[in-house]
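Sharing a chain and its predicted structure for anyone who wants a worked example. Both blocks are below, sequence first, tokens second.
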Amino acid sequence: MSKWFVLWFTWLSWAWKTTIANNLYNLLKNKWYLNIEYLDWDEIRNKINKDLWYTKKDREENLNRLSYIIKLLSRNNIWVIATFISPYIISRDNLRKNSTNFIEIYINTPLEICEQRDVKWLYKKARNNEIKNFTWISEIYEEPINPEIEIKTQDKTIEESTNIIYNYLKNNNYL
């Protein structure tokens, strides 16, 4: 018997949140044929939160809207994989309260490595003040205190990172 869950990937841009989440989503979908949804920042921003920007108020509203979507999905036994920077502990705690089996996954990658992976040059633009309120450059990020899973991608491949999460789900009777 499996349990329903919300896998919440958090940390900086280019930490590999999306890449690992996509890999895990495909693995679970192909192996288990589950009712599973994948929610990514870019898609949500383009479809639901077009009116929001990068201010603290807008970031909180973004997560409030997302929290409602996740609440609907999780109460209807749909597994959720979500990848969002979500820089504030209080916002992640609110998501946890509104979700079934919230699992916080901290993709803890050094800033220098995130910058090296950045093919869109977002960090460079933020350092040149072309992007305002960019997380970890001109905006804070409150690191998770007790995430269920922490992965340091500078030491792991995509497959190894995916397997850490997959094994966590198996070992904790989610699969």
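Comments welcome. The chain has a mean pLDDT of 86.
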